[in-house]
Write a structure and sequence with these properties.
alpha/beta; Undecaprenyl pyrophosphate synthetase; binds farnesyl diphosphate
Length: about 260
């Protein structure tokens, strides 16, 4: 019989996903406009991107702008887009130097032409990066991504390029925006909310979930260490028994 220790999750964390929540509350606590919280949130993004590279984490997915965020006041939407453009401008050389590849997921057709152009430019310029893939979810909703994926599959079936019998988990995954990117191992959500909020609905099927009260602008390397310690203390079963996991060495760790 395997002991609990044997089953600790010792495999490297390959893919980290984060719902960056609490920017507005961070600003409100300081009597600042909401955009000040978003600006500080970008600082946290650069800290955590660097930390992922340092730890050898291969994929980082960040929920930067949801489908629902289009409903925020126009001024806030514009400010978020301006921050995104500044981020791309200020970080692209560092991304190239550090082997960071940018990938965007979401309904990007809704983004302005200037944002789309800038994203496409940085995606192209960082395409050879092989240290970390930074996945920015923009104008993103999990249900929307799944529906668009279903549309692609239906088109393929109707065009005779796919037999329905060939459709399985991995094929459908490949038709999502995230394509061949492996599923997240760990989802972190900041600010005390305990919801998935339409983020990576398909891909998070087996992810460990970690919720912290810390607001996103305050999330730093110390907080990340706490999340990773917690992750590594979990048993990942993937629907199997302890004995099966011990026999196959499925549960695993590192970063
Ligand atoms: C949630 O906080 C955060 C967002 C809606 C946007 C996240 C955006 C950033 C961190 C900055 C832009 C990112 C990049 C990669 C340049 P909230 O506004 O919902 O906070 P609240 O719940 O406290 O109001």
């Amino acid at each position: 019989m395997a002991s609990g220790k044997d089953l600790e999750n010792t495999a490297p964390l390959n893919h980290l996903a984060i719902i960056m929540d609490g920017n507005g509350r961070w600003a409100k606590q300081r009597g600042l406009p909401r955009i000040a919280g978003h600006r500080q949130g970008v600082e946290a993004v650069t800290t955590i991107v660097d930390e992922c590279v340092r730890r050898g984490i291969r994929y980082l997915s960040l929920f930067a702008f949801s489908s629902e965020n289009w409903g925020r006041p126009q001024q806030e939407v514009e400010a978020l887009m301006a921050l995104l453009l500044q981020f791309l401008e200020s970080q692209q050389q560092k991304m190239i130097d550090n082997g960071i590849r940018l990938k965007v997921i979401g309904d990007i057709a809704r983004l302005s032409a200037s944002v789309r152009t800038s994203l496409a430019d940085v995606e192209a310029r960082t395409a050879d990066g092989d240290a970390l893939t930074l996945i920015l979810a923009l104008s993103y909703g999990g249900r929307d991504e799944i529906l668009r994926g279903v549309g692609k599959v239906v088109d393929e079936v109707l065009a005779g390029r796919l037999e329905l019998a060939e459709l399985n988990d991995s094929y459908f995954s490949s038709r999502l925006d995230s394509g061949s990117i492996p599923d997240p191992d760990l989802l972190i959500r900041t600010s005390g909310e305990m919801r998935i909020s339409n983020f990576l609905l398909w891909q998070l099927a087996y992810a460990e979930l970690y919720f912290t009260d810390v607001l996103w602008p305050d999330f730093d390397t110390v907080e990340m260490q706490k999340a990773l310690d917690d992750y590594h203390s979990r048993k990942r079963r993937f629907g199997l028994t302890d004995d099966q996991l011990a026999a196959t060495g499925t549960s695993g760790q590192g970063d």
